[in-house]
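To whoever is on call:

I kicked off a structure prediction for a single chain this morning and the downstream step that reads the tokens threw a length-mismatch warning. I double-checked the sequence; it's 433 residues and nothing unusual in it as far as I can see. Pasting both halves so you can look.
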Amino acid sequence: MRTLPHELVRCARALVGGETRHDYAFVVRDGRIEDAGDYAPVAERNPRLSARSFPADRLIVPGFINGHSHAYQILLRGWADDWTFAKWRSDALYRVVPQLTPDDIYWTFIAAFSEMLSAGITTVAEFFYLNGKGNAHAEAALRAAEETGIRLVFARAWMDADYAPPQFRESIDVAQARTLELMHAYPWANVCVAPHSLHAASLEMIRAAADFARVYDCTMHVHAAEASYEGRATLEAHGATPIDLLDRLDALDDRTIAIHAIYITEEEKRLLAERGARVIHNPMTNQYLGDGICDVSQLQALGVPMGLGTDADVKPSLIDEMRAASLLQKIARTDGSALGARAAFDLGTAQGARALRIDAGDLTAGNAADFLALDASAIDPWTPEVNGVVYRGQDSWVQAAFVGGARVYTGEPSPLARLAQQKLKEISQRVIP
């Protein structure tokens, strides 16, 4: 358990709500930001506190929010590139992931979470589906999150489709019982329910998951409308497209987090907004797998809360996701003014946190004290800082990462992260065909 500081953090330069603030300060107490604003009045209100100061060559920003990840998929990158989705799923995903032991999961997740922290990701929503044999694999992933220090939203998948590997499948009753076990044993992990998709979870399982989320007041993550075939399949089988079908199942409300939401109708976009549902956009993975482009601009205009995710974790970088989110909208709309830098930064920070229903993503009172120190030397003096981060930023700019006010990344890999890289090589030699 890390000791959480009680201190005043003074920033010569900070991004707050996407805007540059000079001589800004915030007070960290019990892992949260207790007070924030211009330095002089904050310091006056909080005398005798020890201070941590960052000079003008460091830009202090909120920790980045990764709204959707499958960390074990780092084992697929490199050798399973440039395949169709069907081949990638059958010949890579379904061949490698079922082989992983709990110890494999621990070391793979140590490596993935450490990589995320080095890229400034302080919160990750991990969509975890290796649950068919019980909670041992999930507990290994949770231990990895606790030991690296990353903030976790653990979206525990429910799957019962016959075509899925048996290591992924459970009955509804078993999935409910095992999810409750994790919720009670790991209250810090934000455990929530995640019926995999409309093709990998039965309609009965999706209804049950939505009921579970209401009863236990947690979110429900679900892959929806990721590829065009899904809409055709649900329309043929059930007479409804994916978002409409979720609504008919009473599984579309303000707890619902729809992952992808690419192939949706104008009516479904409005339905997402009316029901208060949220969407996580995964622009880098959508390009990598050839999925398509989510209509972020229209969903934002309708007021749908959205965040960004690294999904397949080919390169878990929220800076890359922000940039891709912006540039894809400019291409899709042939409009250079579409989804600007500040809007993209919001998706990766404050709005991304709201989409996950957590208090984080900004340097204001009431939020988790999750923040980054970026090397600002590469930002031209005439460039707004938020533009510099989104359009020119690099993961190497991250000099330090703090979660709950505690420093969890120091600018170089930790001994645990270095050991995980060695273990990862051994795992890959055994499981990769």
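Update from on-call: the warning came from a stale cache, not from the record. Cleared it. Sanity check on the structure: Residues 64-356 form a domain with the TIM Barrel fold (CATH 3.20.20.140).
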